Amino acid sequence: MEFFxxxxxxxxxxxxxLKKCTMxxxxxxxxxxxxxxxxxxxxxxxxLFTSIGQLNALQEFNLSYCYRxxxxxxxxxxxxxxxxxxxxxxxxxxxxxxxxxxxxAL
Length: 106
Prior knowledge:
- This protein is mostly loops.
- It contains no helices and four strands.
- It has a four-stranded parallel beta sheet, with no helix packed on it.
- It is globular, with a radius of gyration of 13 Å.
- The protein starts with 14 loop residues before the first strand and ends in a 20-residue tail after the last strand.
């Protein structure tokens, strides 16, 4: 079963909190939130998806307590305006990829 975010105009959504949700993957229409500045997925996901790079207005990303998260995909490197990234208590995350250093706003 896929979860959908409902709303009249997702293009203007600035902040989305899905903290402690039990979904396995992000709803596909999240990637249509082109003005999204803050995304809180803490206590939630076990993996990110390649489409995450489409959220190129994202400034704050909270992935804390995503215990099963094992890696950050290369599309994560497209988040050029990202200023804050919380990866605390992501216990299975072994390494940070080299592209993290190229995110100049971080």
